[in-house]
From TrEMBL:
The chain crosses the membrane at residues 52-77, 89-111, 123-142, 148-167, 179-202, 222-245, 284-307, 327-349, 361-380, 386-409, 421-445, 465-485. The keyword Transport applies. Keywords: Membrane, Transmembrane, Transmembrane helix, Transport. It is found in: Membrane. GO terms for cellular component: membrane. This is Major facilitator superfamily (MFS) profile domain-containing protein. Residues 51-486 form the Major facilitator superfamily (MFS) profile domain. Its main location: membrane. The keyword DNA-binding does not apply.
Amino acid sequence: MGDEERGAAAAAPLLLPASLSAASYHHEAGCPGCAQDRRKESCGGRIPYRELFFVGLTTLASSLPITCLFPFMYFMVRDFHVAKTEEDIGSYAGFLASSYMIGRAFSAIFWGIVADRVGRKPVIVFSILSVVIFNTMFGLSTEYWMAIATRLVLGSLNGLLAPIKAYAIEVCQAEHHALGLSVVNTAWGFGLVIGPALGGYLAQPAEKYPQTFSKESVFGRFPYFLPCVAVSLLAAIVLICCIWMPETIHKHKIPEKDIQIVKALPSEQAYLDSPRKKSLLQNWPWMSTMVSYCFFGLHDTAYSEILSLWAVSDRKYGGLSFSSEDIGGVLAVAGASLLVYQIIIYHWVHKFLGPVISARVSSALSILIVSTYPFMTHLSGAKLSFALYSAAMMRSVVAITASTGISLLQNHAVRQDQRGTANGISTTAMSFFKAVAPIGAGYLFSWAQKHQDSTFFPGDQMVFLVLNLVQLLGLMFTFEPFLVLPTVGEECS
């Protein structure tokens, strides 16, 4: 079996092989992980729709606050009166957008370790609760420092991403692992698109919907509170639903005889079911996925911010002069296409290409798509709408394909009792890159507006060129010798 075929295989990262009968290995009474294993054995290979529903719902609620502010961030910073000139707004907006990722970068490893030791469910519940509280407080911000502080705390306390990826693997049998991670990435990507749509349509309601919201009401005095409280209300509903969410972590040590059963399997099955190395820092297949994972995260965050800032900026700066509602509509349609793609098409992409090839192809396509954005300023009316909507939809699809493939490789390279920590470490690394992305994108966008009249690569073209260079670096690290795929001999030693 070749490297890429092994990468595409639906590996079973549980310590106990799903292929063995229930009588052939040990179950502990009262252990939630063993109870989940028994549920999987009794399902007869069926997709665990109930558990994946919880995965999608909690992931969506956690992701909405991240980019909900993007459509109104420019106007919010302007209303804080911290920027001396219009061209400086992008810089301040970059710091505001990055504060969430900075907080998450410092806490993700901690939440991953807690998820491995205490359980997935407590961390998931606490993360959703933090969204309810601190996203509401962000909407009530009246000063720039208050907005920064609430986003920083929210990022620190929302530790859902690491355990939810582990959870999505653990509730599925081997043949459905790709679907489990696809649900996480779909819901996350969908939230990152629906969030801006909510921000675009619900921000400044007293100005957009004066017949419903008066300027003297709470939504008139706090023009950015409505989209934030809408997200918090959804998170509160999800928090209640978490009562019925089963735990998956094992609360006991795996008996040595069960590990010997795994080692006695034929070579290909042993690759799928063997316990991984104890030290994550010595697990080169897992380590090698980190760089491309971080570059893809950097690109996605920078793209989201630049797209919003570029679309609402004036045409004299190379923008489209869109309103927050316009860009919100674009992102909403992109999110809808993403959902359709993951439900209907992605399964076949994964089946025929595998995670490695699909990540490479989608990364290359992303570069081509992003290259078209600066030329859209020459369009207007229906032509502009068609071009922008088409590009946004295709870009969402290829981005989620690449991130799902890399996430699948990461989670297959580690054992269950390390998976929360491993996802926490990768989330921390990615969060640092995502924290740098809005700051760098903000400065780059401000610089571009001041150099729009340059003869060689006008400002708007330079912005998208830099975005493509970042994506190109991520693409490079999906090839050997940068990417290391596990071998049977290495895993079974």
